[in-house]
C-alpha cells in the first residue's frame, strides 16, 4: 500500500542476483537510455555480444550488412515489366516483408543506444544507397521506376 491508500504497482523481485525489468532478469547489466561507447551492450538477443570484442565486431558487421541489404532491396529492380501481375504482386509483397523485417531489426539494434551500432547502421545505409542507387540504371535513366518505393521517414 502506498501513502494514498492504493496498491503499489512496483514489481517485486524474487531474485537476489539480478534486478527485474519487465519480468526478465538483467543479469547485472544496466540498460542505457542515452548514447554510449563500448562493447558491453545487448544487441538484439539476450547475452549477445556477451562482453566479447569479437562478438561485438560481429554484431556491428551484422547491423552494417542489414543496412546495406535494405538499400539494395530498395534500389534494385527484381521484377521484369512482362511478369505476370499476380506473380509481380506476390514478389512485391515478399520484397516489402523482407525490407521491413530488416529495417525493424536495425531499428531494434539501434535501441541498444550504442554509438558504434548507430554509426555502422548509418554508414551501411549511406554506402548501400551510394553503390546501389548510383550504379543502377535508374540514375542514368531518371524516369526508371524501382520495384519498391524508397522508405520514407
From TrEMBL:
One Pfam assignment: Ctr
GO cellular component: plasma membrane
Subcellular location: Membrane
Molecular function terms, GO-annotated: copper ion transmembrane transporter activity
Entry protein name: Copper transport protein
Assigned keywords, A-Z: Copper, Copper transport, Ion transport, Membrane, Transmembrane, Transmembrane helix, Transport
Segments passing through the bilayer: 54-74, 86-107, 113-135
Family indicated by similarity: Belongs to the copper transporter (Ctr) (TC 1.A.56) family. SLC31A subfamily.
Biological source species: Trifolium medium
Membrane-protein topology: Multi-pass membrane protein
